[in-house]
Amino acid sequence: MSDDIILSVESVSKQYRLGQIGTGTLSHDLKRWWYRIRGLEDPFLKVGEANDRSRKGESDYVWALRDVSFDVHQGEVLGIIGKNGAGKSTLLKILSKVTAPTTGRIRSKGRIASLLEVGTGFHPELTGRENIFLNGAILGMSKKEIASKLEDIIAFSGCERYIDTPVKRYSSGMTVRLAFAVAAFLEPEILIVDEVLAVGDAEFQKKALGKMQDISKGQGRTVLFVSHDMNAIESLCHSVVVMEHGSVIKKASPQEAIAHYLSSSKNTDLSKARRTTEGDLWLDAIQLNGSDALYQTVRSGDALEMVFTLNRRLSLDEVKAVGFYVVFRNERNVILFTISNRYDDMQIVSAEKYTSFRCLLPDLNLTGGVYKGTTWMSLRNGFCDEVEEAFHIEVLATNYFGTGQMPVARKHGALLMKQNWTAE
To answer: pTM for the whole thing?
Structure first.
């Protein structure tokens, strides 16, 4: 490992046995032992499937990670992106030594501090102050070193009033703020941050991102950052790793890696979309401008008609009790606007039973770019169904204002606003 490389991941794989705790059955353990004393490779490392949750597998073994290799240079901020289930969190747990790899090895220089889940490394019965000293001791710092950073940690976290209260009384947001402050100010050589920052409010997220930039640029420390916020990834990271089904498929500049990830993330099959369903009512199909295709191209200013078919027929009373929402985001996962039958005096067609909701946006005032819609449904104020990134809309820029100007999202923002200028 060269002098400027602070972290090296070499052919790391992680295998799990589905539905089991430990290595598996006694017969499997005996077979492993028999192969090992004969100097042969573990026979169960040859079986297993990629971690593709969109299809049903046949093996009891699954590779959460498979032959992952990359190097991280000192002072580098490395972003790690990928769909849910791509292996990002498993990789961070191995880097943080929470779990061990099945094969491969990790080589690193210096102390590693990680922020993987809300409350990671905190003892719930201890106060915030006591947990600061506990975490510092785990990192190998003396009591005097920790005390010198104590006031900065408390001030950054914004938890001064509750610092002598047991952390089990903290909200998730307070816990994250304190945990991040501890991890950042105790000056580890490598800081690992998972999506957990999303729990904090917008102001704290901005402050945390600024602190990570200071850690990297000002102090020359290394940061590994997992996020679904592409804006944060692009602004913070020097390079980005794209993961898919437990493997690294690309390491490149933030712009190139994000473009690759977004182009491979567009949903074309509703059954493969990530969804959460509770109850007996859920979204069954979507039509966009009369087509079943979940990736549609339209022009700025054109109409967009969406038909959402439900899994069962509803009575008039049930239809009136349904809240149906569609949240539109841009490619960087920023919410742009939301539409809902609750925002409109919904017309009820004369019928005994209803099978779908239809929504017409008569003037799609979006700039050129790709947008995605997540659906969310409730019945009588109880949650029913959510489909993340249920469909994608590619909007082609047009002469929307009749002036020859054709704004695009990446330069001018997402929305086209009707306006009337005068000079006086």
So the answer is: 0.65
